Every structure is written in structure tokens, then in C-alpha cells.
Amino acid sequence: MYYAQEEGIDYTLKKYGLDAIVFPAYLNSTISAKAGYPSIAVPAGYQASERPFGITFAGGAFSEKKLIQLAYAFEQKTKHRKSPRF
Fold first, then answer.
1. In the predicted model, what is the mean pLDDT of the chain?
2. Engineering a disulfide at 59: which of 9, 23, 29, 63 sits with its beta carbon 3.0 to 4.6 angstroms away?
3. 62, 13, 7: which is closest to 36 by C-alpha?
4. Three-state SS across the chain?
5. Cβ burial, residue 60 (10 Å; 0-12/13-18/19+)
6. Is residue 30 part of a domain?
7. Does the residue 36 lie in any domain?
């Protein structure tokens, strides 16, 4: 937890005045997991092949509420979520 607070997630969030860090797809989501911090992944678009891709919002300790708000706002603004076709 020391690295998350003194050099990692908490440090970065505080230094730059951020609510969350955004990663493409699920890349680097292990950074949050190792620190025991929350993250949430949402759809961010589709490739030419119609294969979906997403982004991950990661936050500090106990930031679940803020991450859900950010993810919801992103989804409402971008409208990237599509129902699956069978």
C-alpha cells in the first residue's frame, strides 16, 4: 500500500488534481488491483471489424461512488454501448 499512497495512484491523483486515471481497455488495471483500489471498465467504441473495445477508470481507496458516476456520465455522453446481436 505504501507505493499506492506515496508514489503511485494516490500520489498521481493528488499531484494532478484528478478524480480518476483512465487506461485503454483493461491495460494497467492490475495497478489498481494490486493496491486493492477500485476500477470500472466501460465500452469506448468499436473497431472496423465491429470488435468492441473499452476504457478503464481507476481511482483511489473508497472511490467507488466517483468511479460509477464517471463511468455512467461517459456512457451517457458517448452512447457506445450496443446490445449484442445474436
1. 86
2. 63
3. 62
4. CHHHHHCCHHHHHHHHCCCCEEEECCCCHHHHHHHCCCEEEEEEEECCCCCEEEEEEECCCCCHHHHHHHHHHHHHHHCCCCCCCC
5. buried
6. yes
7. yes
CA-to-CA separations, 22 to 8, 9, 11, 61, 85, in angstroms, rounded: 14, 12, 15, 16, 28
Domain tally, the chain: 1
Q: What is the pLDDT of residue 6?
A: 66
Q: How is residue 80 written as a grid cell?
A: 457506445
CB atoms within 10 A of CB 29: 16
**What is the model's pTM?**
0.81
Owner of C-alpha cell 467507488? 64
Distance CA 5, CA 15 (A): 11
